[in-house]
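User: I'm putting together notes for a lab meeting next week and I want to include a structural view of one of the chains we've been expressing. I don't have a solved structure, so I'd like a prediction I can at least talk through. The sequence is below, exactly as it appears in our construct file.
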Amino acid sequence: MQSRFAEIGALPACSRLDWITTVIEAWENLRPSKSFSGLTLDQFKELIKPMLDARKRITELEKQMHDAYTDRDAADAAALAQAQLVVSSVVGDRENGGRARSTPRWGWHHLGSAIAGSRAAE
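Assistant: Thanks for the context. Below is the predicted structure for the 122-residue chain, given as structure tokens.
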């Protein structure tokens, strides 16, 4: 038979935090000056600080990732728009004679596939 504490360790991270928060709130409200398991409330709070710090760090990293994806998407949009202008200019260049459409070297094939793929997803 599995112990109650083993079950708690298997909980999702948010549930583990909820449980720790419940323990602290009960300790603060019911027996704030009492030591349990050889720890005062302040010692227990110090002991769980790495747990809380890790969660704070994860939240900060998630925000950084979100911001990085937003920056990437904005940079992609600007770069793709400029690349489209370049390829269109190549197609319209008399010296090139419109040959860019017939060769994937200028990325016309990739652009067409991407557009077709995005339309198929709509």
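A couple of points you could mention at the meeting. The longest helix spans residues 49-92. The chain is about 75% helix and 0% strand.

User: Perfect, that's what I needed.
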